[in-house]
From TrEMBL:
Domain PucR C-terminal helix-turn-helix as annotated: residue spans: 330-386
Segments passing through the bilayer: none
InterPro entries, per the entry: CdaR-like_regulators, PucR-like_N, PucR_C-HTH_dom, PucR_C-HTH_sf
Domain of life: Bacteria
All copies of domain PucR-like N-terminal, residue ranges: 12-173
Protein name (database record): PucR family transcriptional regulator
Length: 407
């Protein structure tokens, strides 16, 4: 087919079908709505009009391009990029739009094919193939524009969503007496259900494994953007919560603060960070996240190690003058005695040695510290000091420790 014949056939085709553009669009929309119910809005007739106008605009521009191959498409491309933004805001995936485009295109081609049988126009098979290829290439370009808009809107929405979540976490942790009305309003806009209780988890990257983003459900507010990373966990004592944290924080050192109402999140964070500092220094630890409530004595004692050392000097002075192994053995023995009511048999079982050895050590302790080790009024202080001092001075005692000399 020569060029002139080709152009005349295309011009005749456009001249005939351009007036039928609205009907072509209506049939395309009907086919889309029949196959994809998400595009049907009986309560909003304007929505159907918008969908129909979009189809009409796309088909009409294609007719215009057939009539004028040099025609610019910037305006229609911009329109369909914005359409992609709208699809993202409606919560529809690109796959849904692409399916609707295929259905609408098929309906438009079917309409033209059906009508061609009754036309005096002669459309050679070669031209039909070219037209079909042109339509498909055109739809692909529109699909690219929709994808661009959809991706931009999705990224923007994700960024805004994350920004609201971060702001919510920061407001919760801002300090005593946070503005709970502002927090509740922001929680609603962040799709975060306000819980009855929360716990704050202080985080620190482990040195032995590369840290990845914690794999946690969406109800957990993640504050990795903070200089001291943390999480806010709703309903922390609910079923499966501890296992969730164990699985999601395998690559992090984590300390879980006490459970508190949301208005007291800053208090939970304070205890969690104190615990994390002790964990960093190797003074508390364990497999998986460390619970602050299970380490309260250490948190209370070791948080003021300077004061602890002063009290230890006053209560344990003569014992501290011994060589490291000697003082460690006797300190562990005294702690076990305090926790077992000075029952030599029970202490021997705990320390895996003979009761006679325990009695010998107790006599040594009496010689060093006097009868004050039995005083009920000072037992709590002595117990706390021993706990803290042993944690701060982890010298290893020999497995088989013989009689300890005091001189």
């Amino acid at each position: 087919m020569d060029y002139e014949t080709h152009r005349r056939a295309l011009d005749d085709l456009v001249r005939h079908y351009r007036p039928q553009l609205s009907q072509i669009a209506r049939e395309g929309v009907a086919a889309i709505e029949e196959s994809i119910p998400d595009y049907v809005r009986p309560h909003d007739p304007r929505y159907a009009e918008v969908v129909e106008k979009a189809v009409e605009y796309a088909v009409g521009h294609w007719f215009d391009m057939v009539a004028d191959p040099a025609l610019e498409s910037d305006e229609v491309i911009a329109f369909f990029r914005e359409l992609g933004v709208g699809e993202a805001r409606e919560g529809r995936s690109l796959e849904t739009w692409q399916r609707s485009a295929r259905i609408g295109t098929s309906a438009a081609i079917a309409y033209i094919t059906r009508r061609n049988r009754d036309l005096p126009l002669e459309v050679p098979g070669e031209l039909v193939g070219q037209i079909t290829a042109s339509v498909l290439a055109y739809i692909d370009r529109l699909a690219e524009a929709v994808a661009e808009g959809h991706t931009e809107a999705s990224a923007r929405e994700v960024g805004e969503y994350q920004g609201r979540r971060r702001r919510l976490l920061e407001l919760l942790l801002a300090g005593p007496g946070p503005d709970m009305k502002e927090i509740r309003d922001l929680a609603a806009r962040s799709e975060w259900t306000m819980p009855q209780t929360i716990a704050v988890v202080a985080l620190r990257e482990r040195e032995d494994v590369p840290a990845r983003r914690p794999a946690l459900p969406s109800e957990v507010l993640v504050g990795l953007h903070l200089s001291e990373p943390c999480l806010v966990v709703p309903d922390p004592e609910g079923p499966g919560r501890r296992r969730m944290l164990e699985n999601g924080l395998r690559e992090w050192t984590a300390v879980v603060g006490p459970t508190v109402p949301p208005a007291e999140a800053a208090r939970s964070l304070d205890w969690a960070r104190r615990g994390l500092d002790l964990a960093r220094r190797g003074l508390i630890g364990g497999d998986g996240p460390i619970l602050a409530v299970e380490n309260l004595p250490s948190l209370m004692i070791l948080d003021r190690s300077d004061l602890l050392c002063q009290v230890a000097e006053r209560r344990l002075g003569p014992l501290l003058e011994l060589r490291p192994r000697q003082r460690r053995v006797l300190a562990e023995t005294l702690l076990a005695c305090l926790e077992s009511g000075f029952n030599a048999t029970e202490v021997a079982q705990r320390l895996h040695m003979h009761a006679q050895t325990i009695r010998y050590r107790v006599r040594q302790l009496e010689g060093l510290l006097g009868e004050g080790i039995y005083a009920p009024a000072s037992r709590l202080e002595l117990h706390m000091v021993l706990h803290g001092w042993l944690a701060l001075h982890p010298e290893a005692a020999e497995e088989q420790a013989g009689p300890v000399r005091t001189g």
